[in-house]
Design a protein that fits this description.
Largest sheet: 7 strands, mixed
Shape: elongated
Structural class: alpha/beta
Number of strands: 7
Radius of gyration: 20 Å
Length: 221
């Protein structure tokens, strides 16, 4: 698979949140920041110290590790990958014993009911499995707002969702397809609201004419 055929792992989180948001960012190359995305970017810049190794309390941590999966056609950078001593692990050059591998994703908010964040971390785990030829049964997400780490099992169902969504993303990307707007409560927290214009798809009492008129009035103030 050529480099141009790979899609970003981070796109899974966007795709699970809103397929239109994903297409605007990854197909149409549109982006607009708000407070939430800016805060997330600062946090990732803080932990993405590429290639830095940290050995503490028996655990080896590598930050900013680039990963990819030829099977899924995904590539990206892990915030951190931890190697923990285990009798059922893999060998590491320069280190004695066997080691289990876990990706650790950093998020600016708090744990969510949905699987948006878990899908991204699970995809990282599948990439690491392919790279290290090793089974990875769990991943971790550290939430900056609550300062808590969430550990979750990478179930068969989660694996299948990652594979299905990766396939769907490649289909959209190859066709250059951007889904239509489907307004929801999530639109209020999306940084692309002004580019996506979900208000245009609201009921008839919020039609295009009234929407444009309201914006003209705002600009005149």
């Amino acid at each position: 698979m050529c480099d141009k055929d790979y899609l970003l792992i981070s796109g899974l989180q966007h795709f699970a949140f809103c397929r239109r948001q994903w297409a605007l960012i990854h197909i149409e190359q549109q982006w607009q920041e708000n407070f939430l995305t800016a805060e997330g970017r600062v946090i990732h810049n803080r932990v993405h110290d590429a290639g830095v190794k940290d050995f503490r309390n028996g655990t080896l941590t590598i930050r900013g590790l680039n990963v990819k999966s030829e099977k899924l056609g995904l590539t990206g950078t892990c915030d951190a990958v931890e190697f923990v001593p285990s009798d059922e692990g893999i060998t590491l050059s320069g280190y004695k014993g066997l080691w289990k591998v876990y990706p650790v994703e950093y998020k600016h908010g708090s744990s969510k009911i949905g699987d948006c964040d878990r899908l991204q971390a699970a995809a990282q785990a599948l990439c690491l499995e392919e790279m290290f030829s090793s089974q990875i049964d769990e991943a971790h997400i550290f939430y900056n707002k609550t300062r808590q780490r969430e550990r979750f099992i990478i179930s068969h169902e989660l694996r299948e969702r990652v594979k299905d969504m990766s396939s769907e993303m490649h289909d959209y990307y190859s066709r250059g397809y951007t889904p239509k707007v489907k307004p929801s409560k999530s639109c209020h927290s999306c940084s692309l609201t002004e580019l996506c214009l979900p208000d245009l798809m609201k009921p008839k009492d919020k039609n295009v004419k009234k929407y444009m008129a309201s914006h003209y009035r705002e600009n005149e103030l």
